[in-house]
Amino acid sequence: MLGANACWPSEPPARLKRLEALLHTRLAGARTDPLVAAALERLQAGDGRLRIEALCAESGLGATRFIERFRAQTGLTPKRFARLLRFNRALAALAGAHPPSLAELALATGHADQRTSPTSSDGLPA
């Protein structure tokens, strides 16, 4: 997509516009899997707290097949996507006017303690 022969503008804003145009062109023909779209909506509505087993059951697929379809559409497993949602929620809370303590943040984002919270660097997606 970003071939070596491509003529790229030298200024970052122009480069971004060019990249956006290429991505829009490439994605124009992409089809969205309705099962994955529904799962994404449910995960986002629940701030990433929905159990993946529940998503699999709702889809009518086995866990392996559901995860394969989800990954094919998003590039992530449902579990990793949910973790990113929780991490983004934690970042937003920390950036707010009155950031919570890490213990409060861990509980608010569905974790038992600070160690397992999304602010911990262990296991964050690359």
TrEMBL record:
Keywords from the named record: DNA-binding, Transcription, Transcription regulation
Residue ranges of domain HTH araC/xylS-type in the record: 33-114
Compositionally biased residues, Polar residues: 115-126
Region (Disordered): 106-126
Transmembrane is among the record's keywords: no
Molecular function as annotated in GO: DNA-binding transcription factor activity; sequence-specific DNA binding
PANTHER family: BLL1074 PROTEIN, HTH-TYPE TRANSCRIPTIONAL ACTIVATOR RHAS-RELATED
Protein name: AraC family transcriptional regulator
Annotated source species: Piscinibacter aquaticus
